[in-house]
Amino acid sequence: MRIGEIAALVGVTSRAVRHYHHIGLLPEPARQANGYRAYTVREAVLLARIRRLTEIGLSLDEVRDVLADDAGRELGEVLAELDADLARQEREIQERRQVLAALLEAPLTSDGPLSPALAALLDHAPATTSPAAAKDREHLALLDAAGDGAGAELFAALRPLAENPGVLALYERLDALEGAGADDPRIAPLAAELAAAVPDEVLAVIPEGEPSATGLGRVLLDDYPPAQRAVVRRVMEELAERVRRRGTA
């Protein structure tokens, strides 16, 4: 095989192959009389392994260390490992296509695509012009995108909350705090009512710990002005405490 052929076979560029030669990661094969490099199956296997290791996040120096540890392995063993890796990639592609099919079947909205679970939750939420409700929707979409499907149970558990007509009044009270300070006397009672409105079923799918201490929790809190942030932080703390009490009950 020539350089273009081995590059196409493995799925890299000829430039990448030359770079691997240059840094000594991929031994350069002997040239034929016509001056072209002649690559063998073993070099193709090695190049495929380099590509796989870099795709999973290893630096080229780390790849070099792995390859050094693999020196002397039988070609059949390496080929079997690569075959298993391709089978894994096929499964992952199939799973991603299944998720994509579900997204295509769900309603397409301006903040979509949304997972079927989140789309179903929002479909049951009453229409409102509340800025706080709109912000909640954005946060759910962020959780949906960052959770890799892990939020499906949470969205299902939130259904009773979305269908609760009293929640709109709570959103309006939260809207009214937009320009208030973090010491506003309305903060504590509103936080208590918001936390109390969260169904017990939600607690079962909330990880034990302090949500406001997580990366996502901090991002959500930073999205609110002072008084609203104080309310949301109190709600997070109360829910975390309910989860702890539930775990020790």
Question: What keywords describe this structure?
Answer:
mainly alpha, 2 domains, DNA-bd_dom_put_sf
What's a concise summary of this model?
This protein is mostly helical and 249 residues long. Helix content is 65%, strand content 0%. It contains 14 helices and no strands.
Q: What would you say this structure looks like, in words?
A:
- This protein is an all-alpha fold and 249 residues long.
- It has two domains: 3-71, Multidrug-efflux Transporter Regulator, Chain: A, Domain 2 (Orthogonal Bundle), CATH 1.10.1660.10; 107-248, no CATH class.
- The protein has 14 helices and no strands.
- The protein has helices spanning 3-10, 14-22, 41-55, 60-69, 75-105, 116-123, 131-146, 152-157, 159-162, 166-175, 187-197, 200-203, 215-222, 226-248.
- It is elongated.
- The model has no long low-confidence stretch (mean pLDDT 82).
